[in-house]
Amino acid sequence: MRILFSGDVAWNTGRKALATALPVIKREHGPFDFILVNCENAAHGKGMTDRIFDEFISLGVDAMTSGNHIWDKPAFLPLLDSETRVFRPANYPASCPGRGHGIIERKGKRLGILNIEGQVFLPPIDSPFLCADRIIEELRAEGGDRLPIFVDFHAEATSEKQAMGYYLDGRVSAVVGTHTHVQTADERIFPKGTAYISDAGMTGGHMGILGVKYESVMPKFIDSLPCKFEASEDGAAFNGVIIDVDDDTGLAVGIERVQVDTENLT
User: Fold this and answer.
1) Best exposed site among 61, 105, 168, 256 by fewest CB in 10 Å?
2) Catalytic one of 29, 44, 69, 154
3) Does the annotation mark 69 as catalytic?
4) Which of 220, 183, 222, 221 lies closest to 201 in space, CA to CA?
5) HEC string for 175-191
6) Backbone angles phi, psi at 240, to 5 degrees
């Protein structure tokens, strides 16, 4: 099984970069059994909309994970609650809209998805570690011991992300970090067969600060004044990873970082 995952798609710049990069990545690295994206920043940097959901599906995206900003557009919550191809972090209260895990299917293949959020420097929610224990058991009960499971760990601290990688090693196919928008160079296969990277990066404008024009951010750092963020339209690029999974074991046999400068493709 071959999985393509895009790090946080940020703003309209990121959506355009995704649409531009996908045909190139498919041609050079495909075919892919599943294409996944983190969508939590796709609508003006915070949240999602029904229209963007349809846009991603039309590009061939099979499922979308998210994070703490998935709640920022209230109009999207009914679709989040009803749609099985978009996920919110599982360790939020059960009363929250949506679901944090599930099994998606395409052309006879099945992939378990688990979306969890870290606790360090983020809102106080349930332990992602204990939540993962419970949900992996549920996914195994439904999909079997060899079901490939992809984990999007939306977290701030690299230490917490690495801890999750070791904690789930051998129990899932991949633990991929999101949220920080900066692609890390620590991709690896852990000893028991789980692919790992601290952060898949950001699909968006890289000539700025985390997808935002640096001019609009600097007042906050210099004077601690409120400021209105504006999307960076420069340095558009796709960041993500490709993960190869052994069909017999459900464990990873490869992970590769992907970076595509889409400004040079348009």
Assistant:
1) 105
2) 69
3) yes
4) 183
5) EEEECCCCCCCCCEECC
6) 180, -165
